[in-house]
Amino acid sequence: MAPSPCALCHTNRALILRPKDHSKLCKTCFISVFETEIHHTITMNALFKRGEKIAIGASGGKDSTVLASVLKTLNERYDYGLDLILLSIDEGIKGYRDDSLETVKRNAEQYGMDLTILGYDELYGWTMDQVVEQVGKKGNCTYCGVFRRQALDRGAARLGVKHVVTGHNADDVAETVLMNLLRGDLPRLSRTTSIITSTPSASSDPASNTNIKRSKPLKYAYEKEIVLYAHHKHLDYFSTECIYSPEAFRGSARALIKNLERVRPSAILDVVRSGEDMAKLVPGSDEGCGGACSSNVPIAEEEEGGCGSAAGRTVGGDMENMEKQLAQNDTAADNDLEIEITAKSLQKAKQHNRHDSAAVPLANGKKTKKGVTPRKTNKQVMGQCKICGYLSSQEVCKACVLLEGLNKGRPKNKIEVGYEVQDVQQRDQGADGVADVMQRTSIGGD
Amino acid sequence: MSNEDDVPITIEFSGGLEILFGDQKKYSLLLPAKDESGAPANVAFLVRHLCDKVMKDPRKELFVLDDTVRPGILVLINEADWELEGEDKYEVQKDDHIMFVSTLHGG
Ligand SMILES: [Zn+2]
Ligand SMILES: [Zn+2]
């Protein structure tokens, strides 16, 4: 085939075929267009405020690395006035994370961003290695996934950062839309398509620093283009193998998306858009206002891929009970209603009335049983976890249920789950930087 | 094994795909100039060759599915998207740099 010229500059040789519109672009024009589109996503959705401090959930993987790189570029180019930092969660698996950890360290240097690593040990009192020691290898992914879901919010709260951005891309969103569609779970579909999800505070205290906003600036970016951007910009990222063993259902949804893309590349964004349109039809959805009012609407955490091997394991003894309990609490491992509230408000609540379940009504539709199709949006009464203060549909959030089980088996219980929000344990970046990483595929969602 | 009809090329794996190829990212190899049927070696033949001769991991399906590169793996022929070059029908040329990049791995 004769080389095609770039559709934009008409000069350079085209190297990229864009999945969304089949346009053929040269490397320079592609990089420029990719960045400009993210800029549009950011401005159209008013994702950021000038002066805002933003924690980038950084795993060292392609998505979060590209996100950090692009945000740095755009922040400088368009003078967003953002204070960007990297936040990594270390689940504490010796050896396994070394490479991704090193990658985030290098990213911190390359992008001149502060990096904070928070370990599961700091957030929960247990490293994953310790969990495995206690419960065995089987089923430990359940712990990892449940802990992971709260980790970025807890970490941000510790740092006094109110906005966490994650590297979820269009493929991730399309995959989640399909999964929820196939489950018949439109309420959750509505939440997961939102570009801004906000974890609500149970407190009306405006000074609350745990009303953490979450957003996904790469929501409309194809995974293919993210990888190509990283490639052509020579970004330094790390990949794990774990994606090859996602839970069967998510794996199938992912394969379906990738197969559709081969045949009809625009399908991915079409699914995302369909998801958004369907979300508008769901009662109680915040999509009707284009996400502008979403900070007022409590939204449960988006669905994130769990570390695949959690599903379908046979486990013995305590683990089995734990799994049962969890299954009762919530049917799917990816369900997630746990939202952190302020330590301040927690203390307040304790002082005032010792009411464990200062109930806060949330619009959501989580309470579905396996195999039962939800017919409408359920209004669910949310309380806060009486142990850690996270908002939870149960008296005790999933993380605390797991911790309780773990701590029972530990002779000396010196674990207190992070009440000390102000006690920011920030590892010194130092000259050689420190980082740490979580691969979303291994523990589910970045 | 090599003869003068072999085509010298470089192959690169990234995005986690190198895990399937003995954790080695770059390979210089000599590809037979003709495929099994005597037709000029194309990318489809190269992929079969890589599977049979180079891949260390038994999980072939993580690289090849339905006789072609698994969806989600990008193929760059001299930096260009293979879709711009005729995909697996592209006839491999001397000194080509062909890269396989997985988008399937975690980030
Ligand atoms: Zn151009
Ligand atoms: Zn809790």
From TrEMBL, chain A:
Instruction: Kindly list the places in or outside the cell where this protein is found, as annotated in its UniProt entry.
Output: Cytoplasm
Name all Cytoplasmic tRNA 2-thiolation protein 1 C-terminal domain ranges: 383-412
State a single Gene Ontology molecular function: hydrolase activity
BP-aspect Gene Ontology terms: protein urmylation; tRNA wobble position uridine thiolation
What sequence ranges are listed for the domain tRNA(Ile)-lysidine/2-thiocytidine synthase N-terminal?
Answer: 53-241
Major enzyme class: transferase
* Any one GO CC term of the record: mitochondrion
Which domain of life does the UniProt lineage start with?
Eukaryota
Pfam families reported for this sequence: ATP_bind_3, zn-ribbon_14
Q: What does this protein do?
A: Plays a central role in 2-thiolation of mcm(5)S(2)U at tRNA wobble positions of tRNA(Lys), tRNA(Glu) and tRNA(Gln). Directly binds tRNAs and probably acts by catalyzing adenylation of tRNAs, an intermediate required for 2-thiolation. It is unclear whether it acts as a sulfurtransferase that transfers sulfur from thiocarboxylated URM1 onto the uridine of tRNAs at wobble position. Prior mcm(5) tRNA modification by the elongator complex is required for 2-thiolation. May also be involved in protein urmylation.
- What protein does this entry describe? Cytoplasmic tRNA 2-thiolation protein 1
Organism listed in the record: Ophiobolus disseminans
What taxonomic ancestry is recorded?
Eukaryota, Fungi, Dikarya, Ascomycota, Pezizomycotina
TrEMBL record, chain B:
Coarsely, its chief localization is cytoplasm
What keywords tag this UniProt record? Cytoplasm, Isopeptide bond, tRNA processing, Ubl conjugation pathway
Cellular component terms (Gene Ontology): cytosol
At the top level of its lineage, which domain of life is listed? Eukaryota
Enumerate the transmembrane spans.
none
InterPro entries attached here? Answer: Beta-grasp_dom_sf, Mopterin_synth/thiamin_S_b, Urm1
Crosslink Glycyl lysine isopeptide (Gly-Lys) (interchain with K-? in acceptor proteins): position given as 107
Q: In which pathway does it act?
A: tRNA modification; 5-methoxycarbonylmethyl-2-thiouridine-tRNA biosynthesis
Q: Which CDD domains match?
A: Ubl_Urm1 (cd01764)
- Pfam families per UniProt: Urm1
Q: Which residues carry this modification: 1-thioglycine?
A: 107
Name its GO BP terms in alphabetical order: protein urmylation; tRNA thio-modification; tRNA wobble uridine modification
PTM statement from Swiss-Prot or TrEMBL: C-terminal thiocarboxylation occurs in 2 steps, it is first acyl-adenylated (-COAMP) via the hesA/moeB/thiF part of UBA4, then thiocarboxylated (-COSH) via the rhodanese domain of UBA4.
| Entry function | Acts as a sulfur carrier required for 2-thiolation of mcm(5)S(2)U at tRNA wobble positions of cytosolic tRNA(Lys), tRNA(Glu) and tRNA(Gln). Serves as sulfur donor in tRNA 2-thiolation reaction by being thiocarboxylated (-COSH) at its C-terminus by the MOCS3 homolog UBA4. The sulfur is then transferred to tRNA to form 2-thiolation of mcm(5)S(2)U. Prior mcm(5) tRNA modification by the elongator complex is required for 2-thiolation. Also acts as a ubiquitin-like protein (UBL) that is covalently conjugated via an isopeptide bond to lysine residues of target proteins such as AHP1.
The family note in this entry says: Belongs to the URM1 family.
Task: List the HAMAP family.
Answer: Urm1
Query: Per its record, how is this protein called by name?
Result: Ubiquitin-related modifier 1
Species, as recorded: Ophiobolus disseminans
What lineage, starting at the top, does this entry show? Eukaryota, Fungi, Dikarya, Ascomycota, Pezizomycotina
